[in-house]
Design a protein that fits this description.
76% of the residues lie in helices and 0% in strands. The chain is mainly alpha-helical. It contains 13 helices and no strands.
Length: 349
């Protein structure tokens, strides 16, 4: 029994760090692709349809995973039926984060269409602060002074890197940052701030439901995707209904659009694994570190030049990650039996 517990603890630790590393790479590529998709020349696709398609792919991905876990059509359908329909009120809980996530995803497109990549990336790190606030309010998580310092160091480090990248120019191929588009910075700023608040609330709410439930992470994501598709279709009808009816649902879709959608869908599944084995604030640190990785990738892709200010900001980010992960009580054991891991949230009530 003890050996089984140790194996489960070791597996959870491995899954946490593996999923976080993949999340860093996925977010770095998503940011670059998403910005390029919204600023490339030619006809522009409807962002509301892209949000819905990402949820459709995520739903299909979860169903496929469940089919692999339960051999046989009957066993799979019985599991899906039990998880989705036997307790409708429990399933209805996911309508709350679905509504907020739909708002967040649509606002992210608005923000990145009206702000430079650097401004968007820096301002979007406010979601780490909002996640911490909602974690305290909704989950009863206590954050030490050292962790508060690490939160502000993280924001300062990412800001230094991204403010530096604002003045940097690319001498290579044309990127999304070099394409002249009509932008409204105020609208972009409002969109990204509201998106950060939405992200913090929805992420913590989903974490609370997931960790306090016997339903699998994949069932919860099917519920989340289902409600997100419904709400997303309402968003299409209210915002782009006439245009979509005239030009078509997949108007102006190309390989960049599909790549962005696939990475968003994959990221949604990956986030589900991250919040199962870690927490939302640690996920935020991984996402922030992915911004650094995206700038490094720009050196090879767009001839971006790393300066002393960039190196200083990157060092701040890495140091802040170390500070946040430093155990406050070395001998403490959290609810999952993992010693000295302050990234787990102890739930109250």
């Amino acid at each position: 029994m003890a050996s089984d517990g140790m194996k489960q603890t070791g597996f959870a630790a491995k899954m946490k760090y593996i999923s976080l590393v993949i999340l860093v790479v996925q977010n770095a590529s998503l940011i670059l692709t998403m910005r390029y998709a919204r600023t490339m020349p030619g006809d522009m696709f409807f962002s509301t349809t892209a949000v819905v398609m990402a949820e459709v792919l995520k739903l299909l991905g979860c169903v496929l995973i469940i089919m692999c876990q339960y051999v046989g059509f009957r066993a799979c359908t019985e599991h899906l039926y039990a998880g989705l329909f036997q307790n409708p009120m429990d399933s209805l809980k996911m309508a709350v984060p679905a509504l907020v996530y739909t708002l967040q995803n649509n606002l992210a497109y608005v923000a990145i269409s009206n702000l430079s990549a650097a401004t968007f990336q820096v301002t979007y790190q406010l979601k780490i602060i909002t996640t911490a606030m909602f974690s305290i309010l909704m989950l009863g998580k206590s954050i030490s002074r050292l962790q508060w310092v690490s939160l502000f160091l993280l924001f300062a480090g990412v800001s230094a890197v991204q403010l530096e990248s604002t003045g940097a120019t690319s001498s290579g191929k044309t990127t999304g940052e070099q394409v002249e588009t009509e932008q409204n910075p105020l609208l972009g700023l409002i969109a990204v701030v509201v998106s950060c608040i939405s992200s913090g609330f929805a992420g913590v709410f989903f974490e609370k439901v997931l960790k306090g439930s016997v339903a699998s992470v994949w069932i919860r994501n099917i519920q989340l995707a289902f409600f997100s598709i419904l709400l997303g279709m309402i968003s299409i009808w209210t915002k782009d209904g006439a245009a979509v009816s005239e030009k078509g649902f997949f108007y102006a879709y190309n390989w960049v659009t599909w790549m962005t959608i696939c990475m968003q869908a994959f990221g949604g599944l990956l986030v589900a694994v991250v919040v199962k084995y870690a927490d939302n604030i640690l996920k935020g640190f991984a996402t922030s570190f992915s911004i650094i990785l995206s700038c490094i990738a720009s050196v090879y892709l767009f001839s971006f030049h790393i300066t002393l200010q960039f190196a200083f900001g990157a060092a701040l980010v890495i140091f802040s990650i170390y500070l946040y992960g430093k155990p406050a009580r070395p001998n403490s054991t959290n609810s999952d039996g993992q010693k000295g891991l302050p990234t787990k949230i102890s739930e109250t009530g």
